[in-house]
Amino acid sequence: MLSGRFMVSKPSIHKVVVPGLPSRLEQVCDTILSQARANKYTEDEVFAMHLAIEEAFANALRHGNRNDMKKTITVEYSVSPKRIDIFVTDQGSGFMPDDVPDPRCDENIYKTFGRGVLLMRSYMDKVEYNNPGNSVHMVKFKEKNNR
User: In this structure, how many other beta carbons lie within 10 angstroms of the beta carbon of residue 57?
Assistant: First the structure.
């Protein structure tokens, strides 16, 4: 007799801690994106995640860790057929994401900061930061017509 309960498998959470070196980004991206392709995410979805991961990693490296190669960046991710969760955490003191000026406003159009946060928010379905702002959680849902 069945109890009425079903076993639901949760995607495994993978954790990678890498030195704060730009060269480590490619390895992290390749691993996550190959799993996305294996789960039949579209190339548009893969492209969006690639951009967002690059921006999050670059921000962690430059702004969070202040290019200190002794500090690490932690990337945690889970990939399932319906969604991908990515956490990028640096060892910096953090920031207030709501205080980042909108780079699309006239007074900020020629300033070189804020575009990464905007890109992540544009390309991912969900972007949220911890408090104190040294970790970003990004989510990409698989397109409904692609399931």
Answer: 24
Kindly report the pTM of this predicted structure.
Answer: 0.86
- What is the CATH architecture of 14-146? 2-Layer Sandwich (3.30)
107-121 core/surface letters (b: 16 or more CB in 10 A; e: else): eeeeeeebebbebbb
Q: How many CB atoms lie within 10 A of CB 19?
A: 13
Query: What are 40's two structure tokens?
Result: 């039949």
Burial class from Cβ neighbours inside 10 Å (0-12, 13-18, 19+) for residue 6 reads exposed
Along the 147 residues of the chain, how does pLDDT read in single tens digits? 444 454 445 568 999 999 988 888 899 999 999 999 999 999 999 999 999 999 999 999 999 999 999 999 999 999 999 999 999 999 999 998 888 777 677 776 777 777 889 899 999 999 999 999 999 999 999 987 665
